[in-house]
Design brief:
The protein is of the alpha+beta class and 548 residues long. The protein is built from 24 helices and ten strands. Helices cover 54% and strands 10% of the residues. Strands 1, 2, 3, 4, 5, 6, 9 and 10 form an eight-stranded antiparallel beta sheet that branches. The protein has a two-stranded antiparallel sheet with strand order 7-8. A hairpin with a 2-residue loop joins strand 4 and strand 5. Helix 5 packs parallel to helix 7 and helix 6 packs parallel to helix 14.
């Protein structure tokens, strides 16, 4: 052989040359490959994720929904950060000197902050699968890749950026750290939550992730964001790249102040399967379970057949209370039950129910209308017409406030949940009809992500039901006391169950038990349950994992 004829010195030199070529080729491969995408080794891992398999129209609907949620979380966290800064400036040096009101206020802000962090955690997993969508296979796909990356990166930045308020205010103040680290069993918050925040928010690994993600974001600017934004300037996520550009320098400057910017960044060490992990879970099991379940899109525990069984005993004016284990609503408000809605029955069922009542029929006639539907149509023709239409493939039977605003929904869609209960106000039909008419008056209003019950320009879910049944000069209603949360007057959906619980054995109770479908997470099903079980659910933590 030719090599055998070479001298030992030549063979040695040739070996050095071959090794050098191999190392150079490897370095060139990594340089080129990571410049194209530093996430290439994650492509196969995420190729079968829901993000990659989703049809374009489904993806657009998902983005529109999630960006409404993200906007609400963004605004809520901004308010929280400002409030933390104001409160921290007035607190005594020693946490032991806190007044009861100061303790309540600080605890309330901390729990709301954790609530928002879990909200962000629930949105991120779906979009972190962006490596599974090809960056080069066509305009729509490469746009989806870039858009999903941008949303995931913005969420990551938001979690860090909004953590600054609590870290800067209390880091190193041991007595305050100990106070925030206390377990809050009623809220499902374990001991050590502030310590976990410190560890993740100012960890060198987190800084390295941001460094890498920012480089990739800058690389996508001309090749992907530019063409996409030029073609779709009104897209629901069009504001995301600019939001990244606003937050990233702030986070980078904060890390520089903390001394993290001096650490070298090795992208091959940073890019692991755990990139974009649930970096700040309040309960690790809850956060991972919610995120993973939302990504895999598991079906609701309550089936349509069970919903139809419940429908058979419902009456117009009933109050529906709902919970989705994998879904967020009313972030920042307490309680196991996060959503409330008002049952109407179908167009014809509502008319039959109220027109059969002589008192209601006489009241409508005095108002110049021949029956309930005509009165509703005269007061709000657009709302009445919307109610006539099908909603999500079934007759509209529910009015509710969701992130899209106040709208009519089918019972099947509204109750595609894991827990649903129905409570019936102990009121005459006429007063229930007046409550329904009041709810119709809010149709079409936007969702109130500020959760302010004292304003009417936006409506949150429990607010819609609360205001529908608010007593008036000519209407008997429900006596429901507002509570204060983060300086706002609110009535959380959970409190409908609270009223039922407190008044269950009272002779003058306001709400009767109608139905309860209770989820059993570990068995992936729901069962018909009792009034006692509903009574017990009131005190469960919002992020309870007992049902797993």
């Amino acid at each position: 052989m030719l090599i055998a004829r070479l001298s030992p010195r030549t063979r040695k030199r040739l070996g050095f040359v071959l090794v050098a070529l191999f190392l150079a080729g490897t370095a060139l491969y990594w340089t080129v490959r990571t410049s194209v995408s530093p996430f290439f080794h994650l492509e196969a891992l995420w190729r079968d994720a829901p993000l990659a398999r989703m049809r374009p129209q489904e993806f657009e609907a998902q983005v529109a929904h999630d960006l409404r949620e993200l906007g609400g979380l963004r605004d809520g966290m901004a308010r929280l950060s400002a409030e933390v800064g104001r409160l921290a400036a007035t607190l005594p040096r020693d946490a032991g000197a806190l007044t009861p009101e100061e303790r309540r206020r600080l605890r309330e802000l901390w729990l709301a902050f954790l609530d928002h962090q879990i909200g962000l955690d629930s949105l991120k997993p779906f979009y972190q699968a962006f490596p599974g969508v090809s960056r080069w296979s066509g305009a729509k796909d490469n746009w989806r890749h870039a858009r999903a990356f941008a949303i995931a990166y913005l969420i990551h930045l938001m979690q860090i950026d909004e953590s600054r308020a609590f870290v800067d205010a209390f880091l190193g103040r041991k007595d305050y750290e100990n106070f925030l680290d206390e377990e809050v069993a009623a809220a499902g918050v374990p001991a050590g939550s502030y310590a976990r925040l410190k560890l993740r928010a100012i960890h060198v690994q987190t800084f390295a992730e941001v460094h890498l993600l920012q480089k990739y974001h800058e690389g996508l600017r001309r090749s992907h964001y530019g063409p996409y934004l030029a073609a779709e300037p009104a897209a629901p996520d069009a504001w995301v790249p600019a939001a990244i550009d606003e937050r990233a320098p702030r986070v980078k400057a904060w890390y520089a102040e903390r001394g993290l910017a001096s650490f070298a960044t090795n992208t091959r060490d940073v890019v692991t399967e755990d990139l974009f992990e649930h970096w700040f879970p309040v309960q690790k099991e809850v956060s991972e379970w919610m995120g993973d379940t939302k990504v895999t899109r598991r079906a609701a525990l309550i089936t349509e057949e069970q919903t139809r069984g419940m429908q058979a005993v419902l009456e117009p004016g009933d109050i529906l209370i709902e919970r989705r284990n994998w879904y967020l609503s009313n972030v920042g408000l307490p309680g196991f039950w996060p959503h409330a809605a008002l049952y109407l029955g179908s167009y014809t069922e509502l008319a039959a129910y109220f027109d059969a009542d002589p008192e209601t029929r006489a009241w409508c006639a005095a108002a110049g209308s021949d029956g309930a539907l005509e009165l509703l149509a005269r007061r709000g023709p657009d709302a009445a017409e919307a109610f006539r239409q099908e909603a999500f493939g079934h007759p509209a039977r529910v009015i509710e406030a969701v992130s899209e605003g106040v709208l009519f929904s089918s019972l099947e869609h509204s109750c595609a949940a894991d827990y649903v209960a129905a409570l019936r106000p102990r009121l005459p039909r006429l007063d229930k009809f007046k409550a329904v008419a009041a709810a119709f008056g809010h149709w079409g209003k936007p969702y109130d992500f500020n959760f302010d019950f004292l304003t009417d320009d936006g409506i949150v879910c429990s607010e819609l039901v609360y205001k529908a049944y608010r007593p008036d000069t000519d209407k008997r209603g429900l006596t429901l006391e507002l509570s204060e949360s983060l300086g706002r007057k609110v009535f959380p959906a959970n409190e409908f169950v609270g009223v039922f619980r407190r008044e269950l054995d009272a002779g003058n109770r306001q709400l009767d038990f109608v139905y309860f479908l209770q989820g059993i997470e570990r068995e992936r099903r729901a069962v018909v349950s009792s009034a006692r079980a509903l009574w017990e659910s009131y005190t469960r933590p919002k992020w309870c994992i007992l049902q797993k």
